[in-house]
Amino acid sequence: MTGIYDDPWAYELACSFRDVEPEVDAVLAWCRRHGAGAPGSVLELAAGPAEHARAFARRGVAATALDLNPAMCAYARERAAREGVAVDVVRGDMTAFALGRRFDLVVTMLDSTSHLMTLDAFVAHLDRAAEHLAPGGLYVVEMSHPRDRLGDPSVGTAWTVERDGVRASVRWGGREDVLDPVTQIAPDRVVMTIESGAEPRTIRDVVPYRFWTATELAAAVRLSGRLEIAAQYGDFGDVPVTDAAAWRMISVLRQPSGAQPGIG
After folding, report:
1. pTM of the full predicted structure?
2. Residue 260, domain member (yes or no)
3. Pairing, β 201-210 against β 185-195
4. pLDDT in the model for residue 22
């Protein structure tokens, strides 16, 4: 039995509630505000179907997408080709990649850092991202808001999407998926039922989720020493991460002043 990440079409459908285009617009605005201006190149890490990389490519940004899952990589290539956009898709681990080139912008979206299970893995990930940044470049990392695990959740764990005549109900984690207080890892159960006029199809999976607090993120950044937090936002607008309306924890990272870029 395959899981949700082994079915890229279903995964993309499950995440189709996201409005990718304005999210990319927001990231580009942060590049102008906190970085060297409009990026000429972008690297999306743990990219999955590479939706954000494709959106950047549609804006003329040279886009590269990296993911560990071969099925996701194949699907991302096919989707980019079908849309007529140029995306360089690379299979690689987000903690141990070396592409031999630098990018004006690196992004990790949809809380993909929850796949980093240890502090060492998070620091290694930050090191690799920093090594691939061009001077003046930014690393934008989107994580879930800590409120989702420590208080009243700001986002739901069950939703319904409809696209191209296909309807899907998704249940991704919940209160019954208990967070281990020592490892901060929860076995998030995923159930997705897809209806398209034929017999409904159901995908069931268990996805390990590593919860990261804001202070742990700051500690990982300090331990790496190659980046600093330039700004944090609570959504893809200007809502502060501390605001009651915040539903994400989005950090804009850059190289410290005077730092020398890596060789990538």
Report:
1. 0.95
2. no
3. antiparallel
4. 98
